[in-house]
């Protein structure tokens, strides 16, 4: 096998590895949550260490309020109707005289329960699964440029795929044009060793 062939095989293997990793990330953060009716969030602080350190992607699904119990990890709005959310563990529940349930939460790394209780309308969902460190890149860059970086990465990967595909087509055409080409001596020696 010539050095060029080794480079071609290594390049294709690397491209497949990168494409596979991108597919796994997309499956875990976009496809599976969408199919399962879930939402994806990224843990920003250390309040849920050690199990969910900063950068953990947590996927939450809605669950009836009466099915949420002590020990469940929930993602909820700090203030009803606002975008800012927190992901903490339910440490106790209470039911008011009017039958409304409320939840006391606490971060796993925190020494005390959260001061404010969580009302049902604030809850975005209960943890379905979490993948540590998958969201770290989104922590390293600001929200302003995150979309630009993601779009750029997709463009680079697509460009690389197109170049690899064009190279494969070119090699195939050369092979079809010269089916009976003479094998150089250095390649003949390698073929003899491999047999």
CATH overall fold name of the largest domain: Umud Fragment, subunit A
Kindly provide the name of the CATH class of the largest domain. Answer: Mainly Beta
The end-to-end span amounts to 12 Å
State Rg.
26 Å
Give structural notes.
The protein is α+β, with helices and mostly antiparallel strands. The protein folds into two domains: 80 residues, no CATH class; 105 residues, Ribbon (Umud Fragment, subunit A). The protein is 43% helix and 21% strand. It contains four helices and six strands. The protein has a six-stranded antiparallel beta sheet, covered by helices on one side.
Briefly say what this structure is.
The chain has 195 residues and is α+β, with helices and mostly antiparallel strands.
């Amino acid at each position: 096998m010539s050095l060029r062939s080794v480079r071609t095989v290594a390049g294709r293997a690397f491209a497949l590895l990168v494409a596979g990793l991108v597919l796994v990330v997309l499956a875990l953060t976009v496809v599976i949550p969408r199919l399962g009716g879930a939402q994806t969030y990224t843990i920003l602080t250390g309040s849920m260490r050690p199990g969910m350190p900063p950068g953990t992607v947590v996927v939450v699904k809605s669950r009836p309020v009466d099915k949420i119990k002590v020990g469940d990890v929930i993602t909820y709005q700090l203030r009803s109707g606002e975008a800012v959310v927190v992901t903490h563990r339910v440490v106790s529940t209470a039911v008011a005289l009017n039958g409304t349930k409320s939840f006391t939460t606490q971060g796993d790394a925190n020494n005390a329960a959260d001061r404010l209780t969580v009302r049902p309308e604030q809850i975005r969902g209960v943890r379905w699964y979490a993948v540590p460190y998958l969201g770290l890149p989104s922590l390293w860059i600001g929200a302003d440029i995150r979309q630009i970086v993601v779009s750029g990465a997709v463009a680079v990967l697509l460009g690389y795929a197109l170049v690899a595909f064009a190279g494969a087509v070119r090699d195939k055409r050369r092979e079809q044009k010269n089916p009976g080409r003479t094998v150089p001596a250095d390649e003949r020696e390698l073929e003899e060793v491999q047999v």
